[in-house]
């Protein structure tokens, strides 16, 4: 009797238009006890008869651990089976056995045997009714509508959207449903309570998931289970094949055993210790690239099936990548995505057209903080406004000025003295000239092209341009932060002169490796985090295996995993409650959150000043823009943007005060902001319609039409240094002072520590702009019990040594190697110094102090 074993089919329909059918069997055809051997049906037969040989015997698909060779030439051309996963002597020591078949014809049934003796058949019945478990669409004459597909593959989450050419709109939401069919048991498993079993992770997924909530996780098969029919194929090649290389994991409840930075290890007593690959996006290792290919290929099969049921087929595919991604890594992704046109399961002569990106990226272009008083929230709703003047005290709160200076309340402030860093000198011999500023920027705008993949920032810009949520008033400058797991992508929009006259233009795009994952990873250092998430699970009646069910698996390595799993299962109205709980019981996490979000907002202020300067000097500016005083909107996209909600849930006024203060400080202080801006920044004004489109922004921007946005022809990206007291050495041995608002270039980054280096004047602080940010962060985070003293900060400032830190970064080393090999002409790495300082300080000072506390 067959007990606790199953056979699963995917998808849950058959059609003459579809040619990829899969079977997962826990009764391998060469097993010693019960065995199941599949056979297929003839889709060209009016009654969908079994495909048989000349003697009327069904053509079985497997024999002796391999795909069966079909001697009849007519039938061998008709039937094209594959065994992706096998069960042979290589896995004899693993008690859980399974195999995965693929066929171009639908499965009609299986033959059962026991110890090699035939003992029965199972015939699959397909129904034509709408409620049929497996739908027979062989007589269906429906023509599939063409669609443009957009996929945003992220470090933590992946998003999918498509544009219907039939309806001329982007689908509101694509939802993947369970398309598996169980032949011997029930596939209706309650994973809200029970952990996923083996056949839920090693095959197509049965948990429904929205198109903006797909986890970037790949469950991989043990390589000993891979079919080796092609012996000269490498392991990396096999690992890249859809289905054979693994499946995306939609499961919310997994029996996790342990974790590291790119693997989750699961505990299945019969199946060993299966692995789930995560955090794949930035790796350039060969095997990891194979896993990315397998993940995207298997996911694309899910996408095809869902779109097929919705009456569509993708004819084009666009994908996204961060602006900071190196050209070398982008080229690797081009190879990965280009392979995906082989996935097509629809019977058509037209291959999926995959658009690749244009990657010729061209990046153009106070003696110290007073650490004075932080103002308390004024009655005007403005928040705290930073100032770089000697006096940080504002008066006249009743002023009719739009800036309405808030009242200052004196507080203890100041870092004290810092150790001066000696000036740097160098011989004039063998020096070269490094170009710093390139003069006014001619953007040479064009209408965004329709046949290229886009940066994540550009895709969000296209989404916003098509959404109707952005003002066409030329007074506005919109800065958007798409906060992801590993990167925050940044773009800026305003109205400029383009080829068709005035129009919405993207004047800035880049990305920084400073995002939500920094906060999630900090859970590893939080002593109370386990109790907080357990309490939240109890309040919401959420069961998570290894946390509040089964053996406890929570530790510093698995903490980020449990953070993600809890967040994924909270409803929109649960988050404020969760953030309040964190603020009260895990104040160190609130401090890390304030640090990450605060530095991003300070950088936003710096960026606004830089953009305003470049725009008013550009030949592409609108008439009357010579004294442009923009109204700045700061908006957010992506699931990671929720990290900006933590403080707001705790105290709305303090939220506005903190982020407005940091923006103005970054801009250069209140006086400069009042002189050059049309009013205080409007933070997060467009994200008011709930979470409907969160994480869809990039994929929808990829899928949508592209006729409403100007972009620079040369992909010019405005980036700034962000820090003062840097110099560039000239060929004559002179020292050229570099200011924080100056541009940073490829050549400057390549020359960090030699021609481009920090050189503060005697007695000046080593990193004044970062210290300016740190002062506000310290005072605010101290309210949440930040376990650090001013002396800890001073020591961290004096040990900044940012040049050495940058040179040790993997992406910097990759850029060096790429240029040395001649793969790139320009040094392929640029990042604002202040963000790099912030990364170093977080890793080497804040997290270590929190851990010790």
Brief rundown of the structure:
The chain is 27% helix and 19% strand. By secondary structure, it is α+β, with helices and mostly antiparallel strands. The strands form eleven sheets. Strands 12, 13, 14, 18, 24, 25 and 28 form a seven-stranded mixed β-sheet that branches.
Question: Care to describe what's here?
Answer:
With 853 residues, this protein is an alpha+beta fold. Helices cover 27% and strands 19% of the residues. The chain has 21 helices and 38 strands. The strands form 11 sheets. Strands 12, 13, 14, 18, 24, 25 and 28 form a 7-stranded mixed sheet that branches. A 5-stranded antiparallel sheet has the order 7-8-3-1-16, with no helix packed on it. A hairpin with a 2-residue loop joins strand 9 (107-114) and strand 10. Helix 8 packs parallel to helix 9 and helix 10 crosses helix 11. It starts with 6 loop residues before the first strand and ends with a helix. The model is unreliable at 361-414 and 416-429 (pLDDT under 50).
**Range of helix content:** 25-40%
Query: Can you tell me the overall shape?
Result: globular
Distance between the termini: 59 Å
* Number of helical elements: 21
Q: Approximately what portion of the residues adopt beta-strand conformation?
A: 15-25%
Write down the overall mean pLDDT. 88
Computed structural class: alpha+beta
Question: Keywords, please?
Answer:
single chain; 853 residues; alpha+beta; 7-stranded mixed beta sheet; 5-stranded antiparallel beta sheet; 21 helices; 38 strands
Topology diagram in text:
Blueprint: E1 7-10, E2 13-14, E3 21-25, E4 34-40, E5 62-63, E6 66-67, H1 73-78, E7 82-85, E8 99-103, E9 107-114, E10 117-123, E11 135-136, E12 145-153, E13 157-164, E14 169-170, E15 175-176, E16 181-182, H2 198-201, E17 209-210, E18 214-215, E19 218-220, H3 235-239, E20 247-248, E21 256-259, E22 263-266, E23 275-277, H4 286-309, E24 312-321, H5 327-338, E25 353-354, E26 363-364, E27 445-447, E28 454-455, H6 456-467, E29 476-483, E30 488-498, E31 501-512, H7 516-521, H8 529-540, H9 559-568, H10 575-585, H11 587-617, E32 631-637, H12 646-650, H13 652-667, H14 670-676, E33 682-683, H15 697-703, E34 710-712, E35 717-718, E36 726-729, E37 735-738, H16 746-750, E38 756-758, H17 768-781, H18 790-798, H19 802-807, H20 810-820, H21 833-852
Parallel strand pairs: 2-11, 12-24, 24-25, 24-28, 26-35, 29-32, 32-33
Antiparallel strand pairs: 1-3, 1-16, 3-8, 4-9, 5-6, 7-8, 9-10, 12-13, 13-14, 13-18, 15-17, 19-20, 19-23, 21-22, 22-23, 27-34, 29-30, 30-31, 36-37, 36-38
Helix pairs in contact: 4-5, 6-15, 8-9, 8-10, 10-11, 11-13, 11-17, 11-21, 13-17
